[in-house]
Amino acid sequence: MISLAGRDILHSWGKFVFTGFGLGLLIGVTLVMAGVYRGMVDDGKALLDNSGADLWVVQKDTLGPYAESSSLNDDLYRTILAMPGVARTANVTYLTMQVKKGEQDVRSMVVGIVPGEAWGAPGWPPYLVAGRQITRGHYEAVADIATGFKLGDYIRIRRNQYTVVGLTRRMVSSSGDPMVFIPLKDAQEAQFLKDNDAIWQSRRRTEANPAFNRPGVPGLLDAVIASQATNSYVNAVLVRLRAGAAPDEVAESIRRWKRLTVYTRSQMEGILIGKLIATSAKQIGMFLAILAIVSAAIVAFIIYTLTMDKIREIAVLKLIGTRNRTIAAMIMQQALALGVIGFAVGKITATFAAPLFPKYVLLMPQDSIAGFFAVLVICALASVIAIRMALKVDPAEAIGG
Amino acid sequence: MAEKGIHIEGLSKRYGEGDTAVLALKNVNMHVAPGEVVGLIGPSGSGKSTLLKSLGAVIDPTAGRMTLGDEVIYDEGWKVPDLRALRRDKIGFVFQAPYLIPFLDVTDNVALLPMLAGVPNAEARQRALDLLTALDVQHRAKAMPSQLSGGEQQRVAIARGLVNRPPVILADEPTAPLDSERAMAVIRILNDMAKKYETAIIVVTHDEKIIPTFKRIYHIRDGVTHEEAGEGRGFQ
Ligand SMILES: Nc1ncnc2c1ncn2[C@@H]1O[C@H](COP(=O)(O)OP(=O)(O)OP(=O)(O)O)[C@@H](O)[C@H]1O
Ligand SMILES: [Mg+2]
User: Fold this and answer.
1) From B169, which residue of chain A is nearest by alpha-carbon distance?
2) Which ligand is nearest to the CA of B25?
3) How far apart, in whole angstroms, are the C-alpha atoms of residue A333 and residue A314?
4) Structural element, H or E, at residue A169
């Protein structure tokens, strides 16, 4: 027996290739959408992995530091370091903002880290692709290569200018913005420092307040103003545990004794994936559903039209004794062939298009495999309408009136 | 050897029920011997197509009896379990239009029938080629149907009707699209095939040119058949 579907496809290959191509672009978009979701999850995990922390200590009752804002006094790290099971602690600040280089600016997550620590301190970029880590207390930066900055570039963060001394990679925020590391003091300034006018006004307000400006207590006013001007806050304290320490137990004792909120790695992952990107994930899910329906409609329509064009031939095939099964198989095989062409085109398109997207698109083999079977199922279902019509064709039609 | 040919006795066919019912066949009696080509003529609406469809097992007759060879296929109801296999193995169809499958080449259009019956591809193609040779279109064996002339297409369609060596061939106006020379050639081929394979052939026609070639003719009027002798001139 010969393959009727195969012969028909060879005969009208133009139609199949064209339709397969169109379908393929749709499938490509679908695969990229799935890749965008995977990329977001992966960005989130990379953020947690690269932070080098086992525990995140944040302001009480907040989901900080990534999902909500959080501020802590910057001296807390010392008392946390004294807790049993804690090996290292590090102050860290996170602030998403526009970082300027000349005329252009790049949306980045500015991370404040304590400079001069040993390699691998929590919060530090774990590896560099070029240059060195920050060694000086001010005006040096390590940037992710996704920012497009080069070694030796001068960049502006609020009022200060920084020299890029090192480059790192895959260091992104949970929304995919590349990171720029700067010394903690500078970062605190960038986040909490008021501009000159605001400082001057607040000083005037303080001076006008008789509670602070007491002629009988010299030095009080100066002390109050000094305390207002310092920026002794950070967003989180990253904690690295001693080998063998149980994260949940240490977290619990910090919660109990320091009255702070503490997250373990798995809780943090829950926050990032379960809360921060949950809405985006639903959005992508909706897109996937719509794309699946549109693809199904296209396949159904094309297969239906192709079958309509063959009504007479189908009547003849039935008249000369072709089984319904053979005719149904012919139509279904064509739908599946269309799906296979579409998937191949889609996979190739997605693979070549993924790096062009501004956010990380992670194409996972298991998504491709699932996508392939989904396409086959959709195509098989879409051919049902055409098959039903073909089975209704009366062989008597071939004889005519 | 078992008797071949077609016997139809008292066949009737009613379309629809009640007020709108049409009695398309009232009393059809026909006998076609193996190797014989008979003409079936009658005015429009007299029931010719209905008769071919009944004999071709694509519609259900209402009453009567039909025998192919020594096998009763219909006696107040179908007597064969698989009408599809009956059509495939016992009946060849030739239509007014050739209705070839456009995506199969000439050889496979013909070879498809034996393939459907389970004959291996190579053998089916050989059978097809033999017939195409007999019908003088073997030089177009690899062409697609759309590349053939009308007469060539019709000959391929005839080859398809004959390829399973059915004991019966039903042809509905097979010469309508052809000029008189080609029409005569088709009738000649049908006569040759009838003799060679002992096939019983019924040809429905309006074609004045070919009517004189039949030895026997059935007239059908208002669903009733009348037999008469034809001129049976044969061919020059
Ligand atoms: N499916 C049907 N339903 C109802 N009536 C039908 C149907 N098919 C045919 N008829 C009627 O049965 C009668 C015989 O029709 P048939 O098609 O057999 O005629 P015919 O001899 O082939 O005519 P023609 O030479 O015009 O093709 C006609 O009156 C026709 O209207
Ligand atoms: Mg008719």
Assistant:
1) A320
2) 1
3) 15
4) none
B13 Cβ below 6 A of ligand 1:
no
Locate the domains of chain A by residue range: 4-43+278-398, 60-193+235-259
Q: Where are the beta strands (DSSP E) in chain B?
A: 6-15, 22-32, 37-41, 63-68, 71-75, 91-94, 168-172, 200-204, 216-221, 224-229
pLDDT at B2 (0 to 100):
44
Rounded-to-integer distance, Cα A196 and Cα A338, Å: 67
> Exposed e or buried b for every residue in B91-115, given b needs 16+ CB within 10 A?
bbbbbbbbbbbbbbbbbbbbbbbbb
Q: What are the boundaries of each domain within chain B?
A: 6-229
Residue reference for tokens 């890029």: A164
CATH architecture for residues B6-229? 3-Layer(aba) Sandwich (3.40)
**Greatest mean pLDDT among A199-203, B97-101, B171-175, B200-204:** B200-204
Distance CA(A11)–CA(A31), nearest Å, equals 30
In terms of Cα–Cα distance, which of A116, A124, A133, A132 is closest to A49?
Answer: A124
- Does B16 contact ligand 1 (Cβ within 6 A)? yes
Q: Nearest to residue A190, comparing CAs of A124, A138, A151?
A: A138
Residue from A264, A304, A278 nearest A85 by CA: A264
**3-class SS at B6?**
strand
DSSP conformation class of A242: P
Exposure of A265 by Cβ count < 10 A (0-12 exposed, 13-18 middle, 19+ buried)? middle
* pLDDT tens-digit map of A276-302: 888 888 999 899 899 888 888 888 888
The secondary structure of residue A149, as a DSSP letter, is: -
Q: Which residues pair with B13 in a beta bridge?
A: B25
Cα of B58 vs centre of ligand 1, distance in Å, is: 14
Q: Are B165 and B173 in contact (CB under 8 A)?
A: no
Helices A311-319 and A278-308: crossing angle in degrees, nearest 10, is: 60
CA distance A326 to chain B (A): 9
- DSSP secondary structure of A311-340: HHHHHHHHHTT--HHHHHHHHHHHHHHHHH
pTM for the whole thing?
0.79
